[in-house]
Structures are given as structure tokens and as C-alpha cells.
Amino acid sequence: MPEWQRMLAVVAHPDDLEYGAASAIARWTAEGRSVSYLLVTRGEAGIDGLSPEKAGPIREDEQRASAAVVGVEDVTFLDYPDGTVAYGVDLRADITAHIRRVRPDVLLTTTGELTYGERSLNQADHRVVSLAALDAARDAGNRWIHRDQLDEGLEPWNGVEHVYLIGTPTPTHGVDVSDWLDKGIASLCQHRAYLDGLGREFDPEMFIRMMTAHGGQLFGSAHAVVLEQIQLAGV
């Protein structure tokens, strides 16, 4: 991956980053890079046995604990409704505003493809947030889009050169995480209430090791997190 110092990760739910990228984030923060998280929802509709009113605060706490494991302290929630996030100008504007605040070099988000893995349906919020994040990365550099943000002191930011996608079927980059698997696994394990609520057996360590081993085969290391690079061209 090209050199960068500041990343903003934009995803729909708590645990989205832990299922795919936490090991890489642990490596990046250990290298002295800054990573911030922007969560569009609190994941409150994600636990069948808990009402959204109870699940939301729990999942927020779990996400903050999970981020801390991999060296991330800056975690922000937009509080859109979990499961029914709709693409629109308001969502783009909220993500744009945060990009202008954080002023990152690169963005990280999930794939917006209809399916992932073995042709499994990608969840609706993932698809919507992915597209909105890509469009917001472009919006952030244009002062005439979301003009009201200028009154809030949010100046345009066109410093985002690339967006990296997690879970893509067409990866272009692999991040060697062979020495960072324990951090990634521990980060996913922080989502205890969510994992317990799955209603089926799930081994976080096995999942992370299998996924990154496959990535390592693609990019020549024992374990790798794979990403697709999207380059932004102009405004």
C-alpha cells in the first residue's frame, strides 16, 4: 500500500471492521499511523435476544473496547437506524463532515458489492454505507457541496487519495498481518454480546485465521488482510 499517516474507517456497524480488518489496523497503529472509526449505526438491531434499546449501548461499549485493543481511541457514532440505513444526501453530508474534521489521507470501508465470499448476500447497510463513503470522499474536496459546513468551520478536504475496500472479490493489495493475528482475534472477541447472540457456534480465532490464511495465499505471506484500492480522480 502507498504510504499514508491518517486513516478514517467508515462502516455501518460495530464488528464490521473486526470481521475483516482489525489485524491490519493493529499493525498500522503500532507503526505510528493514526486510525479513526466512524460507525453509521450502533448495531442495535443486531442481537435477536435483546431489544434495540438495550443492545445499542452494549454494542457501542463493545466497539470502543474492541477499537482500543488495536490502538484506536477515536470512535464516533452517527446513530442512523440499524438495518434500514438509506442512501441519500444527508448520509453523504454527515460522512463528508467527519472527513473534513479528521482530514485523513485514506479511507477504509466495506465492499458495496451485492454479494461477498461464496455468493452470500451482502447486508443492505453495508452496501449503502460503502457507496456513501466513496461519494463523501469526493464531496469533501468540493466547497460547493454541503456548503452549510463552511459556516461550521469545516473547510474542504481533498487529501483523500485512495479508498480501500474490505471483503472485496477483487483485491489489489494484501497487508501482511502474520504478527498481528492475536490482536485482531482479541478485537473481535470484545463483541461478546453480539457473538453470544448469534445462536450458533462461532470460533473467532478459527474464522480470522482461515480468512487471513486465504489472503496470505493470494499475496505471498502466511496471513494477510486483503483490500481493493479505489483511486479518487479530481473533484
Automatic annotation (TrEMBL):
The keyword Zinc applies. InterPro entries: GlcNAc_PI_deacetylase-related, LmbE-like_dom_sf. Its EC number is 3.5.1.-. It comes from the Bacteria. Keywords: Hydrolase, Zinc. Pfam families: PIG-L. GO terms for molecular function: hydrolase activity. This is PIG-L deacetylase family protein. It comes from Kribbella deserti.
